[in-house]
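Before a computer can learn anything about folding, someone has to put a protein's shape into writing. The outcome of that step, for a single protein, is printed below:
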Amino acid sequence: MSGITSSSVIELHNISTSPTSDPENPRSVVDPFSLSVGIKSDEEISTLTARHRKNASRWPYTGGRLLGRGAVTVADPQAPPMPKVKQKIDVKGIKEFYESQNESIQQLLKPVEDHVREAKEEHGDNRIRYLIAVNGSFAANIVLAILQLYGAIASGSLSLFTTMADSIFDPLSNLLLILSHRAVNKVDANRFPSGKARIETAGNILFCFLMCAVSLILIVMSARDIAAHNDSEETTGFHLPSIIAVGVAFGTKFTLFLYCWSLRNTYSQVRILWEDHRNDLFINGFGILTSVGGSKLRWWIDPAGAIVLSFLILGLWSKTAYGEFMLLIGVSADNSMLRLITYISMTHSDQITQIDTVRAYHSGPRIIVEVDIVMCANSSLRVTHDVAEELQIKLESLPDVERAYVHVDYETSHKPEHFLKKEL
């Protein structure tokens, strides 16, 4: 489900939205639904997992005859006791469930101001690291492209030509990402009122298609080399400086991969760079193996390795392009974001009696939110407007929300105002 539909309306009539903590403290936790009761301490989680582990080895019946799927007759004194059967239980999964539940409850109870503040602090603290990740990757990719170009030309290895082609496109991709990021800050809001957040996504898709096109060209080149090769040659020439050049590229990419790891979920641009460094580790490592194999074992290992590498590049970037396409066309937000938006809407004001519909979907890396709330039919236009506008501003202040739309109803028996599929 992409949200809460009108067929599953949340009733709020009997719920008090008054704070459960000190009202004089604006930072106090508001918990009208007593969600904090569900938070488990570390000791409680350990006790629950131990109880599940203990009960897993027990068998509830001491005698009788099995009938069908687990049914038993009345215990027969003459029948031998049934053996104890140990049931396999995922204790680790139980612990992870309670830890995830604690995290979800704490996220819901956190005030919106704290979400905004933490996002600003995170972006502010990581600003220098972000610039190093982007500009450092760009500078490193230029140097590595030159090194791998030398290695491929000097050795003549098709596997190294594949790694070289990938490395040449790396600085071009970095330049594309930098330009698209700058374009986001210069968008004319009158000309593109809703396209600002999608420019980076469009740039990512373009780069993915470039990498896929290069992979297809290298597959054709490698296949032609295999078909035209002279079988009298058992191996290709070995060129140590070329292997060293690609080895340096591998070590550099590994360093950049580790550096971008912690920022990959904060900036979409850094996530693309992290995925690129991750892919290059597989490509360069496998390229070294197949190039050495072609020079020491059999000649066909080198072009065959180039084909495998090209298919690997094609598959990895096709998967990345698919993910970016899903963001561009409007895939639903994850369940944790839907829960947070629903809880914020439910606890926003005691004037809201019900929540009719909650939808949240991507528009590029950010999210569009649609909320239908229900208020009393006798509420004045001023009250209705103020409640809806304050909720809209609150939702739009969340870090990942691009725009929020709040619709007000006085009942829930009507058909949905918007249809997902419109007839032409």
